[in-house]
Each structure stands twice: as C-alpha cells, then as structure tokens.
Amino acid sequence: MSILAVGSVAFDTIATPAGKVENALGGSATYFSLAASYFTDVRMVAVVGEDFTAEHENILNKRKIDTRGIEHAKGKTFRWGGQYMENLNEAKTDFTELNVFEKFHPRIPKEYKDSKILFLGNIHPNLQATVRREVDGVKLTGGDTMNFWIQGSRKELGETLKLVNILLINDDEAKMLAGGEKNLLRAANKVLAMGPQALVIKHGEYGATIFFREGAFGIGSHPFRAPALPIDEVKDPTGAGDSFAGGFMGYISSQEQINREVIKRALFYGGVMGSYAVERFGTERLQSLSREEIDARFQIFRELTHLG
Amino acid sequence: MSILAVGSVAFDTIATPAGKVENALGGSATYFSLAASYFTDVRMVAVVGEDFTAEHENILNKRKIDTRGIEHAKGKTFRWGGQYMENLNEAKTDFTELNVFEKFHPRIPKEYKDSKILFLGNIHPNLQATVRREVDGVKLTGGDTMNFWIQGSRKELGETLKLVNILLINDDEAKMLAGGEKNLLRAANKVLAMGPQALVIKHGEYGATIFFREGAFGIGSHPFRAPALPIDEVKDPTGAGDSFAGGFMGYISSQEQINREVIKRALFYGGVMGSYAVERFGTERLQSLSREEIDARFQIFRELTHLG
C-alpha cells in the first residue's frame, strides 16, 4: 500500500562535532519519505519555495517518491540552522526562517485521496487533523508532534490525537504530553488514553518501545522494545526520528495486514533507518541505501538482542 | 561453581516518592549476594558492627549465603541515608556514616580460597586488588566501581582493572572512566583497553549492553543488549545495579562454561534481578523470590524484545 506523508521540507545548516553542512535538503517529510521509500510507494505533501530546484526534486524522484503533492510557492523554502554539542542529544537552534512554511496549508492532490496509510509529520495539530479528514478511507494513521505543540496547542493536539492510530514521539515529549509524569509506563498509558491505539516512544541511542492500548489491533497489550545500534560516530542526528518513523510506517505499509509480528519488525526497521540516517550529514545516507544493506543491519539488530 | 562476593553491608535510610524506610539492610555485597543466591552458592566477605544482629544474618542465611566471611567489628555498621526525587535516577545523599567500613580490610577465610568466581563490589580499588590476589585459581572476576574512585583513585583503579575480567558500570561511569568520551561505543572501547575483557554498561530503565574486547572469551566482539522492563512503579532504585550484577554473575557461576549464549542469558538475568529489586524497598523483594518467578520474568524480557 502506498503511504501519504505530510510534513516539512527544509534547507538545514547544521554543525556537529563531526563537521558542518549548509543548506542541505531536510525537513520531516523529506527524511520520512526517503526512509519509507525503501519499503513502499511514498506520496509527499509539503511546500517549498523558489529555491527548491529540479535538482532537489530529483533526489526524491530518484527514490520514486511521488512529488505531485509538493506545492511550489513564491518565496524561500523553510530554513533551519542548528548546532549539536558533544552529547548530540539536543540541538541548539541558531535560526528558524519559516518562509513559505509559515502559510502552509496542505492540499491533497486527488490522485492521493485513495491513500490507505497516512503519516502526519510534525506540523500544527490543526493542519494534521485537516489532512486526516481530507483523506477518506485511511486505514492507518501515524503521527508525530513536538514540545512546541504540546505546550502551546494542547487542546488542538488533543483533538488530533483522537484521529491518530500510532503516535511516535520521544521520551521527553511523552512525559510532557502526560502532564509531567516521570514514569515511562504510566506516561505511556496516559498518552494512550488520549486516543492513539499505540504509542512508540523513541529513546535515542537506547532504541524505542511501543506501548499498546488494551485491545489495540487485536494483538495484545504487552509492550515491545527494539534496540538502537551503538554507533562509533554519530555525524548528524538531524532527522533520526523522522527516519525512524519512515522505516516503521514504510515497513507496515509494505505488509498485507497489521499483526504483532509486523509491528515488531517495523520497530526494528525504524531503528535501522534511524541508525543509517545519523551516519552521514543530512539525508546523504538515506539517498543511497539498498534494501540489502537495510536487511543486513536488521540482522545485526536481531543479533544484538536475541538469545539463541 | 560458588561465587565469592566482597563489598559493603549497610543500613540504609531511604526516601522515595513511594515512601520511606529506616535502617533497612542494604549495601553492595548484600544486594549482590541475595540476587546471586537464586543461581549459585554465594560466599560473602564484608564487615559489620555490633548493631548487625542474628536477625540480619538470618536474612542472608535463609538464602543459604555463606556468611563466615563477614567480619564482626566493634562499633556501628556502615549507614547511608538518601532521597530519590521523582525521576529516580539519582540519589541525593543525606548522610554517610562509614563506621566500621572505614577501616575495612577484607579477610578471606581459608574455606573461601578455592573460589573460582569472584565479584569485587564497589570498594577502594586497592582493596579490590588485594582480594583478587588473595584468591588464587580464580577463573573469572567481575567488578564494579563508582565516580568517587574514578575521579579520586584513577591510578589505583587502573591497576585493579587489569585484574578484572568483566567490569559492570553505568553510562556516566563509563564515559567518565573513558576520560569524558561522550560516545558510548568509543567510551566502551577505551575502557576495554584498560584491561577488562568485557564491559557491561547499565542504562537504567533502558537495559544494559555488554561490549567485548576482540577475542575475549573466544566468543566474538559484537556487543549484546538486554532490555529493562518498563515498570509501573519503581518503589526504590537502591541496589538495582548490585542486584543486576548478582543476577549476571550468579547465572554465569551456575553454568559449566562461559560462551556467548551464557553471557547473553546472564545479561537478561541481570535485568530481571534489577527489575525485581526496585519493586519494593531495600532488599525485601530479593528475599522472597522463587526461581520460577525469576524465569517467568526472564520469559517476559524475551517476549519484550524477540521477533518471531
């Protein structure tokens, strides 16, 4: 099944202890779509400015991503600049220029309306909800959000969460969304009570855990945990979470049905794509992978955690 | 094979968001020995004061722990008081009264000298080294340490690390021991270069990873990662690391030989014992477990992480 992804396209200027890159193609929809493209057909909805050239679009098209839903607006593309210090867990933002993204109102091409799997990248919860409502017949909706919306648009986010089947956020976001609950399991249960059937909490270098609401997908409510790979050099953590979501949702889209085994494997594939993303700057590594490399790392993840 | 454990016995006064306990039997050797006692025979070397009664000793003897190596000295037993705030990751120490522990010089009873497996709990590195040298014919030595020795006795610790086969420490300790290296894999490799064949880094609620020096135990150098169980209520994190070490070393001691599968399972058992320890205050839960309960949770850990 093809997957429809909505989110940002950006040009990122990033400095990390491993180096620096300027105006690299990024944004949540870009990372997500590139990662998902190794598993399924991807349709992208986003907005770009006049500085987004055929060369940029070609990066997506080479991965057979359907870019008809990318709106070309007058002005400049969203730009973000940030630095990561030595621990690489948190970025210090140098600048944010929303540009055309400020007035982004996602428009779904009619060719996309039959999409069965939807991913709502990190944009205003109201826009996420609008997109979800515009695509009838969706069978599964994944979603992301961030501290900014959790703090500033909690009510709107609450409405959107009722439309999301699987929410993917990190530890801090989960605890914040749960009203400051510090215990991970209790935080997860509070978030699940807001609407989603499943919640993926990403732990950065420690992997990710999926929690299920009782009865979700008919597959039991025991959590499942996938590892992250200890990596010698994290060059650039930008986009790791979106790449994780792309691997996770992409693998699910490629399967006939959703069962517990599919979701477990999807969580592993999420970790695999996140681990590849951070090995190079920007989306570089995600542009040039092969399914064989992905499955080889999947196998490494298995060996990293499985008893005989 | 029986295991010889050296470390502290203490009376702990602990406050957490879940409650409070006063003068509960604790200390690194106590947690370690109780956890290991479900897998193998344990011999304890420690020092206590006159306030350590037959009732306390009975807690250990009920688990068939050999307490002949516990020295009874004039004065009071080591006492520690601390509080955990809501995140439960770090204790704020209220008081430390070393008492008889201040002059502790471990004496190994001659009945213990044939011990093949040794665990050096968190005491001064010089004392750890002395114990190791006093027990000839040891086949495997596990060890712990802490920030206090890493910062204050780095040289002595360096000598001790050459005598330790498997070092068990947490993320912060590993990074500090590696001279402030922030990348976990690189920190692990730096610590392994100091002597140990294997390094277990404990990640708290995210589990633990074991790293191997090339050629260690002849079982390959790929790391292995075991999960921790998402727990609804962590009542008291005191002793979680020592309980982890007890499960890990105890399981290894119970096996005929050390191979990769044994070490992987040992890491799982470490996580199981750590997860039980934190469910109640002090050593309460570790006193009353059964091997069936332990293996049931081992199975939950497996289901938490294993693909079909």
Structure description:
Two copies of one chain form a homodimer. The first copy, chain A, has eleven helices and 13 strands. The longest helix of chain A is centred in the C-terminal third of the chain and has 18 residues, at 260-277. Chain A starts with a strand and ends with a helix. In chain A, 35% of the residues lie in helices and 24% in strands. By secondary structure, chain A is an alpha/beta fold. In chain A, the strands form two sheets. Chain A has a nine-stranded mixed beta sheet, with helices on both faces. In chain A, strands 3-2-6-7 form a four-stranded mixed beta sheet. The A-B interface holds A 86-88, 182-186, 188, 203, 205-207, 209, 211, 222-227, 230-234, 261, 264-265, 268, 300, 302-308 and B 86-88, 182-186, 188, 203, 205-207, 209, 211, 222-227, 230-234, 261, 264-265, 268, 300, 302-308.
